Prior knowledge:
Elements: H1 46-54, H2 57-70, E1 75-78, H3 84-97, H4 110-117, H5 120-123, E2 125-129, E3 131-134, E4 148-152, E5 161-166, E6 173-179, H6 184-187, H7 190-195, E7 202-206, E8 210-214, H8 232-254, E9 256-260, H9 273-289, E10 314-318, H10 322-342, H11 347-350, H12 359-386, E11 396-399, H13 407-419, H14 427-437, H15 449-456
Antiparallel strand pairs: 1-11, 2-8, 3-4, 5-6, 6-7, 9-10
Amino acid sequence: MATQKDNTKERKPLPKEIGSKSYNRSALDKDYSLFSLATDLRFPYSIKTYEAMASETTLASALNAVQTVALRVPRFIEPYNETTTHINRAKFIDECLGITVDNNDMTHSFDEFLREALTMNKYGFSVHEKVFRVRRKKFGSKYDDGKIGIKRLPIRPQNTIESFKYDDEGREIVGVVQRQSENRAFALSKLYKQLNKKFSGDITIPRESVLLFRADSGDGKGEGISPLSYVYNTWREYQRYKDLEGIAASKNLNGLPVIWMPSEYMTDDPNDAMGNVYRTLVDGVSKIAIGEQSSLALPSDREDMTGQGGKLFDFSLMSASSSNITAITAIIERLKKEMLLCLFAGEIADGIDSTKTSMLSMLVENRIKEIFTVLNNDLIPHLFRLNGWDDTKCPKVKYGKLREIPFSEFAKAMQQTKATKLIPVTAKNINYISEELGLPDRIPEDIDRDELNEILGVENTDDSRSGDIFQTETGVGTAKEVPEQDTSASNLYND
C-alpha cells in the first residue's frame, strides 16, 4: 500500500496576521477637540452620556423591560453526559451559581448577577471579576468538601473602567484598567499616593480574572457598542422638543407678559425721565415672566386731559397658541416611538403581547445568549481547571424559550395530538415539551422504552385510552369524528 508523501517541509510558511481589530488609545486620542465624531459617544466619555439617556423615562422603560423579561427566562443545567460523575458535577455548578436553585454558595443570588451583567444593554459592556474560594465553612461556604467554588462575581462599575489593554498585536484583550478614584488627577497625585499607596491611580485586572459581557463585540473592542448609541441623535432631538413643550406649556399657563406704552417713552437715555419710566416697567415685566414679581404698577395717564380717553399704558398676559403645543406633542410622540423601535422595544408603546414572539424577546434572547456563552466558555471551564477536572467535559448552563404559550392552550394541543396519536411518546418529544414549558428536567434521549414507561408511570405501551374521546353513545370508540352535539368537557374541540 502506497503511503502519502509528507510535504510539510516543502510548504512555504503561512502568512502572519498583520492587522488588528482594536487599538490602544493614546493621550491624543482622548482629546475632546480633535475628533468630528460626537465626543459624547466616545468611550470612556460615553458612559456619562448613556447614564443621562437612561435617566429619561422613555429609554428607562425600554431598558427595564429588557431586564424584567430576561429574569423570567427559564434556565437549567445540562450535564456533559448521564454518568454519575458528570451529573454530580452539574449539580456542583448549580450549587455554586444557583441556576435552578435559590440557595447558591455565592454571597449574592444569580438573579442579582444577571441584573448587573445586563447593564451591558445600557453601556455596551459589563465587567465582572471572578472571585473563587475553597468550599470550607470556615471561609463562609455552605459546603465543607474542600472543592474550589465561587465566592462572588462582582461587577466593576462601568464608570470606573478607564480602558482595555490589548496584546502587542492589538488583537486580544489582556487586561481591564480600572480607575481607583473618582478624581482622575487626584488619583495620580503624589499626595494621594502618600495617603493611600494601595489605591494609587489605576489598577489592571488580568483578562483571566474577569468575565466580559458585550452587547455587540463585532469590532473587537472591549467596550462593545451600546444600543443607546443608535438612538443618540433621536434622543437629542427628543430632548429639545421636550424643552420646547415645557416652555410652551409654561407660557400658555402663565401667559406672555406684554406692556403697551407711547413710543416716546421707549428710550434708553439715562437722563430722560420717560426713559426711566420705560426701564422701570420693562424690568417689572421681566420679573413677572420669571416669577419674581406678581404685580405691576402702571401710570394712569390717558389720551386726553379729561381722563376719558384710552389708556396710554396697558398690560396683559398673552397665551400661546394651543395648536403649536399640539404639534410639538405629536413630534415628541413620534420621536419616542422611533427610539423604542430602534431599541427593539416598540411593543412598549402599544403594550407587550405575551402570546407572540416580539422584537423585544429577540433582543432579550441575544443578551441572555451572550451571558450564558461567557459562563460556558469562560467561568465553568476555569472552575473545572481549578478543581483538576477535564475542562473539555463541562456541563452547560442553558436557557429555555422566551416565548410564552398559555398553559391551557398548550395542554389542549398536547392532549389532542396524543389522543389522535399524531406524535409518538418519545424522550425527545417529552424534552421538547419540557423546554416549551420552562421545566428544568430532561430525559436521556437514548433511554429505552421500558425505562421511559417507568418514568411516565405507564404499565404498558398503550394505556392512553386514546379512543375514549371518540366513543359514540353506544359504541366503544370506533367513531371517526366527535359528534357535533357532544357538549361535554371531553370534547376538546369545545372552546
